[in-house]
Amino acid sequence: MQKNVPTGKRPSKEGYLMFLTVLPFLILSFIFSYFPLSGWIFAFFDYRAPLKLSQCEFVGFKWFVALFANKTQLSQLWQVMKNTFAMSSLGILTSVIPMFFAIFLNEIRNKRFKAVVQTLTTIPNFISWVLVYSVAFSLFAESGLFNSLLQQYGLITAPIKFLDSDKHTYLSMLLWSQWKNVGWGAIMYLAAVAGIDQELYDAAKVDGAGRFALMRHITLPALLPTYFVLLMLSVANFLNNGMDQYFVFQNAFNKNHIQVLDLYVYNIGISGNSISIATAISMLKSLVSISLLCVVNFLSKKTRGEAIF
Amino acid sequence: MKKKVLSVLLSLSMVCAMLAGCGSSSQPGATDTPAADTQQTDNSAEAAAETETTGKYEKFITVDVFDQQANYQGIQSGWFGEIVKQKFNMELNIIAPNVAGGGDTLYQTRSAAGDLGDLIIMTCAGGKLQDLVTAGLVIDLTDYLPGHENLLKYQDALEYTSECMCKDAGIWAVPSEVSERSATTPLGGTQLNSGHYLRWDLYKELGYPEMNNWDDLLNIMKDMQELCPESDSGKKTYAFSLFADWDGDYMNAASYMAAYYGYGIIGYAMNKADNSEPSVSLLDDESTYMKGLEFFFKANQMGLLDPESTSQNYDTLASKYRDGAILYSTYPWLGQAAYNTQDHLDQGKGFEPASMSDNEFYDWGCYSKGNPNNAVMIGSKAEDPERLMDFIDWLYSPEGICLSTGQTSGSCGFEDLMWTMEDGRPVLTDFGLECYTTNDAQMPAEMGGGTFTDGISQLNYKTISDGEINPNTGFPYNFTLWDSYNEMNVPEVYADWQEKMGAKNPLEYFMDHDMVVVSPGSGYATPSEPTEISNMRAQVREIIKDYSWRAVFAADRAEYDQIVEEMKSIVNGLGYEEILAYDLQCAEEEKQARIAVTQ
After folding, report:
1. How far apart are alpha carbons A121 and A106 in whole angstroms?
2. What tens digit of pLDDT does each residue of B427-450 get?
């Protein structure tokens, strides 16, 4: 086999050009993905906010040890991990929803209606969580729309606490994120659907397939590869289930179940004035993420024969 | 084709607009300016150039004030903003952690970035001053002090604060509430900082029921809530309403009760004001904090607690008080300040304090050495420290005191406009009275216009103790202490209160009945704590706050007990005992400081 890239000592002009083309992206990924890692150094110091690092004492692995110091500490971390895993798993379990949404949306014949539905479901993706929460607050707070309506019609006497409660926290968080993300998530699948060869459908129709049979036997199988790629990506992001959503929705009542790892790091580190220990936790998080990636990569290598590395 | 060209043009113009947007936001100063009150800034810059009194200060500057106590964020507007502009050719851009929320977050991020603000108003306690000095965020005021006679008057207090709070030599901060009186003299004024402020008109209607304990209070409030089920605007009334903005190491509302029994709180140690009792743990079964939790739990069970307590902030709560939707207030400056307007007083309605027989209120003694728990500092990145020093000096001058402390205490305001000297004693003018009793007294246009209330100093900073005497008049700055004010036609509610209680004002009543315990103004502030303790505290405080709120809103007694148990066991696992041991040590130091200052 002949190699495409010349292996001579002096790279060709084309090689330079290629390198220059990719350089901005290398720089960007260095700035945003590698440079921040220098912040890990805070985990090994006794850091306090206004001081410079050089003015702080070096403490080695003290904070890592402190994390596992006793049973309560562990159970706190365990609860946080449970929340993180639960919400991420729910996210992965429901990752089929955008696909089916796309399939059904595709079946709508009325172009105008289809466009309206797609626009309306995509818009929430562009609304920040802070605004989503303020909408949630106006609807579901004690003096919000729902409580006011219910009270006006005499259905309840005391307001129902939708937000200040720990009931079905996972579920309600899932519903909010679905509301925000389904339309956006479906775009990729809609693009994939558009790419399916029309002849397949025509052939199936000739064979007497109905609409559901078309979906079941042609659209769905055609979308599965896309689905699996997205699934892989979301598994790698298992621990990064974000914090803005949980940050805005958190309160004293639901914190036990809403506090995911990122939020925990924020609450302890930034609000709680313990940046060092928070850095230590997030370093552990990176470790877990890398191991997860390795596992997925290994599985992928075994089952599909393809791998990232 | 035409369509295509058009669309390309449109998208180009959109991109330009977006870029333009980026450009303007990166202009210096604009990034830090919160959205509020920008309309004021535009014309003030132009107007400043024309003002003639600003000869000394040629360049107009915007001063970022990091203010831990402020409840307002943005440019200081109204008459106070105007006078600052006229005198110093600058405007104050207040950065308020209280408004931003998230506890210490704003301090953390801004201080880590190396610039807290040009003017810094915050506590020196907890080693904060030392940290700021070590990190080089504040400047030494020693060289700026000469020539500032109002500050030189308190030079002792300035030196003492820096000496106690910081190892580095120099004068780093100007403490608040300085006083020329002795440490055991109560701070003064006419009110205590806490009390059972309730709707006196309703209390009267109920026949002034006697109150011996907190259960009596609950029953009275229940009757009161039934008696007055709707606010002015037709909303449902509640006896109690809380807010979470000021939660620090614990649920602030539950800790109110400590003040009713003469306890102050240092970390998680509760210290009796006059050292007469041993210090106790915040989470002790018998502590006033746990009693406070239980009290609000019971109140909630009886339907007396506003369900919005969990989510509302101070502003929302204050507006509820204004509307008459809340019937009880722990603080005079919340219930009375918001509700006792001329309108309400004319209708014979108002908040006044009832007495509970077993209370012993915590009151602060005068800080002869100043109060380091709130102090002014000048940031090291400040553009014009000399001017800022002049400004601080002005804040401590008789004129500055009259004008700047109006938010929480009754300082008298502009001479001639709001008060004048008559027969050798100060008297409020009609306009002055209007300013203090209504919310819509219009200030003259040359003073910046707007209402008096909207224009007050948003710094929320007390330069001097409440009862201090104005050297220019020989009378207190606080107009509510003037005989001339008390002789004026007293509103019906006040008169009724005075008649019923047999005293001129709440302070007098509680002093006469031996219900006040004074904590000598030692000027003690906690030192810097080891990071292990801070780390443990960071976790413990989250648990205590969350579980306290959950306990108050627990469905029933069993759930309440369970939550409290769980809270205690978790915090103990997270190192509560160690934190407490540290706090008790600080409490002991405070006791010693009190003894030292009274000797």
Report:
1. 14
2. 989 898 888 877 788 999 888 888
pLDDT of amino acid B222? 95
Q: A275, A291, A290: which is closest to A41 by C-alpha? A: A275
Token pair of A277 as six digits: 């220990």
* B80 lies in some domain: yes
Which residues in chain B are closer than 8 Å to A52, comparing Cβ atoms? 135
B421/A287 Cα distance (integer angstroms): 74
Amino acid at B435: C
C-alpha span between A71 and B462 (Å, rounded): 46
Host domain of residue A102? 67-126+162-304
Tens-digit pLDDT profile for residues A215-274:
999 999 999 888 888 887 787 777 777 788 999 999 889 988 999 988 988 888 777 677
- Count of A-B CB contacts under 8 Å: 109
- Per the structure, the count of domains in chain B is 1
What is the structure's pLDDT at B112?
87
* CATH number of domain containing A107: 1.10.3720.10
Is residue A145 situated within a structural domain?
A: no
Interface of B with A (CB under 8 A): 102-105, 107-109, 111-112, 116, 131-132, 134-135, 137, 244, 303, 307-308, 310-311, 531-532, 534-535, 537-539, 541-542, 545-550, 553, 569-570, 572-574
Q: Predicted ipTM?
A: 0.81
Q: What is the CATH number of the domain that holds B130?
A: 3.40.190.10
Find the domain containing B109 and state its range: 32-181+368-384
Tokens of A106: 């595709």
Tokens 């003290």 sit on residue = A62
Residue A290 lies inside a defined structural domain of this protein: yes
Residue B129 belongs to a domain: yes
